[in-house]
């Protein structure tokens, strides 16, 4: 697959950024100065001497301090300095995209059952906060539309994980929700599922996409080019088996975002590697740590 974007990505080399794709250039311009989209360009373009800090991406919101994948968790992350929030999306039984991580609502709400078996009306009744702490009683499972509206009004960008295999129609509904609120410039799609990413690319070429990986592919660079990825979003454990992959992907113009990293020791190691984003349950702490650290580029 080559829609012109992979050519554009390959054309990025140190000290020079060129775009063969007007759509990609538009996405990047719309996103600036939001860093997840801008940083991969600056960092992959070899601006090492003035390298920006990795982008802080709040995993399921500020999930160490508030119930994951709720609007209050997103607000805590936002107030803690995170400009990017990661959420998971899955459909209700009647096709409405909701923000939820697990396949069932059991762990994170007062309800039971697979999300795909529950109607939107039922999901709207659930308490998604009490399981975490009484102070959060009454928090809801947000629809994707509600999440996007909240971001649009209150600020921030969305790293949206399409959770599990989605049909073409289900991806189309997600794209419809994003476009309905003119949020394409502030949404970055990621998924472990390659067919789902291909549907996203086909339906919404304006949206940057990232492939999630818990183990490394045999040829990550080749796969990134085949899928026209903007980012390869790899687990910290998997990247530790091949740290040089960051440079290989950057050489190909592909950003690297790493999950889920909560310790200063690993933040320091990943900062030194030059990764583009760090996905963390502790976004406020990572924001503070980055503000206080000595930039890797300045120390050699
Ligand atoms: O963003 C990466 C991470 O969210 C992938 O794993 O299980 O937390 O969705 P998971
Ligand atoms: Ca996720």
UniProtKB/TrEMBL annotation:
Listed Gene3D superfamilies: Phosphatidylinositol (PI) phosphodiesterase
Domain GP-PDE: 54-290
Descriptive protein name: Glycerophosphodiester phosphodiesterase family protein
Organism: Streptomyces narbonensis
């Amino acid at each position: 697959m080559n829609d012109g974007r992979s050519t554009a990505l390959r054309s990025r080399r140190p000290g020079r950024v060129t775009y063969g794709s007007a759509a990609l250039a538009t996405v990047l311009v719309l996103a600036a100065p939001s860093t997840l989209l801008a940083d991969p360009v600056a960092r992959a373009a070899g601006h090492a001497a003035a390298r920006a800090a990795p982008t802080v991406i709040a995993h399921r919101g500020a999930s160490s301090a508030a119930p994951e994948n709720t609007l209050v968790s997103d607000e805590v992350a936002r107030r803690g300095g995170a400009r990017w929030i990661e959420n998971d999306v899955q459909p209700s039984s009647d096709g409405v995209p909701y923000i939820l991580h697990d396949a069932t609502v059991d762990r994170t709400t007062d309800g039971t059952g697979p999300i795909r078996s529950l109607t939107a009306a039922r999901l709207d009744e659930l308490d998604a906060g009490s399981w975490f702490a009484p102070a959060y009683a009454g928090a809801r499972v947000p629809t994707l539309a509600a999440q996007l509206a909240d971001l649009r009004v209150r600020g921030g960008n969305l790293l949206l994980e399409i959770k599990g295999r989605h049909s073409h129609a289900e991806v189309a509904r997600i794209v419809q929700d994003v476009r309905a609120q003119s949020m394409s410039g502030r949404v970055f799609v990621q998924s472990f599922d390659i067919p789902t990413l291909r549907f996203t690319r086909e339906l919404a070429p304006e949206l940057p996409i990232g492939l999630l990986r818990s183990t490394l592919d045999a040829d990550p660079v080749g796969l990134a080019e085949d899928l026209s990825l903007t980012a390869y979003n790899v687990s910290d454990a998997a990247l530790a088996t091949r740290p040089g992959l960051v440079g290989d992907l950057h050489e190909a113009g592909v950003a690297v975002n790493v999950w889920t990293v909560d310790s200063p020791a690993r933040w320091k190691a990943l900062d030194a590697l030059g990764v583009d984003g760090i996905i963390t349950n502790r976004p406020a702490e990572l924001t503070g740590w980055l503000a206080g650290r000595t930039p890797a580029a300045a120390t050699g």
